[in-house]
């Protein structure tokens, strides 16, 4: 088991955050607040900025990042400057795709409701228990948050930058944090997700991405020191 604090500490913090969100009903409190703020309905659910730009178009942007990464991997076959980074680039892409795949499989297999599905927020499902499983009903696609995962899967670039000891490697966290937060705030404003859905997406992307990256790089059991 890894002893890397850069991996373990965020996992511990996220698990604690998920527990606190459930104990203090933060999911319901936040959804109630946003629902009331929008006038007792999800006014931003179909709005141009949140629905078209920050949801549909943003999905294309996430795909573009993957295509560009693949292009750099291909270019590394011909560039002596990029060749030393090829394995890390492959590991990063595979780790991100694995995270997204697991998020997608989970959200489509678990019959958990989105806020907009519940009667409390204008939907058809009775109750407001966040982790109530609606087996046998046409509900799903909500947990973990798939759209936010499209941003948070970019957090894996931190481990790439650290592995190769790039200058200011901690800044590699910024794209994943900024894009992930933008995506999850957008979806919460639309009534598509609770806060816990987004926390679960971060936790899954961080954990799975890290483990897959280190497995491919062949140093899964390393300590906190990074090696080239």
Which segments are poorly predicted (pLDDT under 50) over 5 or more consecutive residues?
222-228
Largest sheet: none
Overall average pLDDT: 92
- Taken together, the total number of domains comes to 1
Rg, rounded, reads 19 Å
What portion of residues is helical?
Answer: 55-70%
Could you say which overall geometry the principal axes of the C-alpha atoms support? elongated
Question: In percent terms, what proportion of residues is strand?
Answer: under 5%
Series of secondary-structure elements, N-terminal to C-terminal = HHHHHHHH
- SS-based structural class? mainly alpha
The count of β-strands is 0
* Distance separating the two termini: 21 Å
- Number of helix segments? 8
Protein name: Phosphatase PAP2 family protein
Domain Phosphatidic acid phosphatase type 2/haloperoxidase: 90-216
Transmembrane segments: 61-82, 89-106, 143-161, 168-186, 192-213
Organism: Salinisphaera aquimarina
